[in-house]
């Protein structure tokens, strides 16, 4: 057996989770509803968990008890995986996967949130919300960002 995984930029991953959660539950009725739900979501245990997925899964940590050892453990575990890809570099991931299994592999990627969101006002609202709250998002995902950036040698 071979192990593979595909990671996403932590900031994008956290916000995408919120957006998908809103859209699949028909909670994004209007701009005010989106902002109201954001305030509830971003302070929830769910958001704290989602912000630290790499630390939880690869660092084998409870998201409430993260420390430097969590980051080191996550990096050790990621280094044991045969192919670790970056969603922002999906073509490289496909190439590595093809080399690993000896057969051309194409990974389909579909942004399902886009399909659920036909209203331009909603699109603009989510974009504004992301930009307005980027510092807060970045702070919440700082441990996962450290894991992600260190693993992929990004600054």
Task: Give your account of this protein's structure.
The structure is a single chain. The chain is 63% helix and 5% strand. The model has no long low-confidence stretch (mean pLDDT 90). Helix 2 packs parallel to helix 8. It is built from 10 helices and 2 strands. It has a two-stranded parallel sheet. The protein is globular and about 50 Å long. The protein is mainly alpha-helical and 155 residues long. The longest helix has 15 residues, at 10-24.
Q: What descriptive keywords fit this protein?
A:
63% helix, two-stranded parallel ribbon, 155 residues, globular, mainly alpha
List strands and helices in order, with pairings.
Elements: E1 4-7, H1 10-24, H2 31-42, H3 45-51, H4 53-57, H5 68-79, E2 83-86, H6 90-101, H7 112-116, H8 120-132, H9 134-140, H10 142-151
Parallel strand pairs: 1-2
Helix pairs in contact: 2-8, 5-10
Major β-sheet profile: 2 strands, parallel
Placed side by side, the strands forming the largest sheet appear as: 1-2
Helix coverage percent of residues? 55-70%
Helix count, per DSSP? 10
Distance between the ends: 33 Å
Short synopsis of the structure:
With 155 residues, the protein is mainly alpha-helical. It has helices at 10-24, 31-42, 45-51, 53-57, 68-79, 90-101, 112-116, 120-132, 134-140, 142-151; strands spanning 4-7, 83-86.
């Amino acid at each position: 057996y071979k192990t593979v995984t595909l990671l996403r930029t932590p900031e994008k991953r956290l916000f995408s989770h919120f957006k998908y959660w809103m859209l699949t539950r028909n909670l994004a009725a209007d701009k005010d509803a989106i902002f109201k739900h954001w305030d509830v979501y971003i302070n929830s245990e769910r958001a704290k968990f989602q912000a630290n997925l790499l630390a939880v899964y690869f660092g084998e940590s409870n998201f409430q008890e993260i420390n430097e050892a969590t980051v080191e453990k996550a990096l050790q575990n990621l280094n044991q995986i045969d192919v670790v890809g970056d969603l922002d570099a999906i073509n490289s991931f496909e190439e590595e996967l093809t080399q690993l299994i000896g057969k051309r592999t194409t990974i389909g990627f579909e942004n399902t949130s886009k399909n659920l969101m036909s209203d331009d006002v909603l699109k603009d609202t989510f974009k504004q919300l992301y930009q307005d709250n980027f510092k807060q998002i970045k702070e919440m995902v700082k441990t996962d960002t450290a894991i992600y950036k260190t693993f992929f040698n990004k600054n």
